[in-house]
């Protein structure tokens, strides 16, 4: 059994934490922003239309669970407090729910692409002798991975994840109710997903895409 190394833990935390905090904050702020664009200002009135992590954090999902991932030597993973959405304020409920639900994972996809872009900028345009070269490289690589994981995870069509709401927007009322009833098995499903290799298989295409963007930016910027 490996001995816990505090120095490695602090290094891993300092490299991954900026990307993780930005990822979950942008995820929730994007939900709030798109909801506002479709006519629901509930999240804005409650102070959730912001990138300030203090407005979005939840003790378990944003602090304890990610710290556990860092302690175990893996990638930080977690979630923030879901933004409130009042669908009665939408003019076109189905369309609005779909895009509001996609906004969070969409923000993570954009962040992953931007991180890949700046990663390549750093590698191709900045000297390795720059004293913050290695830390910045590690932070950008962690941001690519974290945002890929969050995007893929939240797009899984199982309640209460964002992907389930996107699917639900295409269903009639009766089928919506039946589909949403699956939420009572949500925690068991998430545990099964997380502690088996199933999520690794789901994540594999996202990592390939992220690496594809890195290669594309290399070609463009080299």
How do the helices and strands line up, and which of them pair or pack?
Blueprint: H1 6-37, H2 42-45, H3 59-71, H4 93-125, H5 133-154, H6 162-168, H7 173-180, H8 186-194, H9 198-221
Task: Write a structural description.
The protein has helices at 6-37, 42-45, 59-71, 93-125, 133-154, 162-168, 173-180, 186-194, 198-221. The chain is mainly α. The protein has one domain. Helix 4 packs antiparallel against helix 5 (133-154), helix 4 (93-125) runs antiparallel to helix 6 and helix 5 (133-154) packs across helix 9 (198-221). The chain is globular and about 60 Å long. The N and C termini lie far apart (44 Å). The model has no long low-confidence stretch (mean pLDDT 91).
Q: Any descriptors?
A:
222 residues, mainly alpha, 9 helices, globular
